[in-house]
């Protein structure tokens, strides 16, 4: 049995962004992001503070178990906490699982500057080169155009035949239909070639 504590998760640096481990001070700005109806437009509801804290707990537990997760996003010179961007194991059964998903959630005033795409490219590169993942997926509802645009900017591919009903939502829920995007390691590495 391996009872050594896991080392601190890696931090990833982009030109303008830093993906770093979570700190206790991130909780309050994270709760404000999760309470914002604009940020949560494509989720069932904004989160109360205790639910936001519980989500931060689950994110930290994911790092503890897997060594990676949705990192805290810092934009040096702009803000110490802008939200999260990172990788997580899909926690439900679907036609594409088991799989590792890439996801993002940023404070609304920071949208429209390319931070999510820059951070996601760093996380994806780490997933393929350091974690050795064969493939990364992402999914959202068809109305979440900003999130779909990030997936497309990353070079992820969509096939309508892979649309699925999110099993965590009840059968008649209006957000149940999701689009799945995928990218394989070879595809990603080809995009990095000069
Ligand atoms: C999804 C989300 C992260 C996308 O954020 P975003 O800021 O639109 O995404 P990007 O970082 O890729 O920024 C792209 C925009 O910045 C602009 N931009 C400015 N400078 C840029 C740069 N240097 N590089 C790239 N894009 C740049 C792009 O033109 C684009 O503008 P547009 O929105 O007018 O087309 C954000 O909307 C969000 O947090 N939503 C709520 C949570 C959510 O729904 N998460 C996904 C659940 S599946």
From TrEMBL:
SUPFAM superfamilies named among the record's database cross-references = Acyl-CoA N-acyltransferases (Nat) (SSF55729)
Source species of the chain: Herbaspirillum robiniae
Q: Which Gene3D superfamilies match?
A: 3.40.630.30
- Which residue intervals define the domain N-acetyltransferase in the entry? 17-176
Q: Which InterPro entries match?
A: Acyl_CoA_acyltransferase, GNAT_dom, N-acetyltransferase
Write the protein's name: GNAT family N-acetyltransferase
Top-rank taxon of the source lineage equals Bacteria
């Amino acid at each position: 049995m391996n009872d050594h504590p896991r080392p601190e998760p890696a931090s990833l640096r982009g030109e303008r962004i830093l993906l770093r481990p979570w700190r206790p001070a991130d909780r309050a700005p994270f709760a404000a992001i999760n309470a914002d109806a604009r940020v949560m437009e494509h989720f069932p509801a904004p989160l109360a503070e205790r639910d936001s804290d519980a989500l931060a707990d689950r994110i930290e537990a994911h790092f503890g178990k897997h060594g990676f997760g949705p990192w805290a996003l810092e934009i040096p010179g702009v803000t110490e906490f802008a939200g999260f961007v990172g990788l997580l194991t899909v926690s439900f059964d679907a036609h594409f699982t088991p799989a590792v998903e890439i996801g993002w959630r940023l404070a609304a005033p920071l949208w429209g500057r390319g931070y999510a795409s820059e951070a996601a490219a760093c996380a994806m590169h780490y997933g393929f080169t350091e974690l050795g993942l064969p493939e990364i997926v992402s999914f959202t509802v068809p109305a979440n155009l900003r999130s779909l645009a990030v997936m497309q900017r990353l070079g992820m591919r969509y096939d309508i035949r892979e649309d699925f009903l999110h099993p965590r939502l009840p059968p008649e829920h209006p957000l149940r239909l999701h689009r799945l995007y995928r990218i394989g390691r070879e595809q990603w590495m080809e995009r990095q070639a000069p």
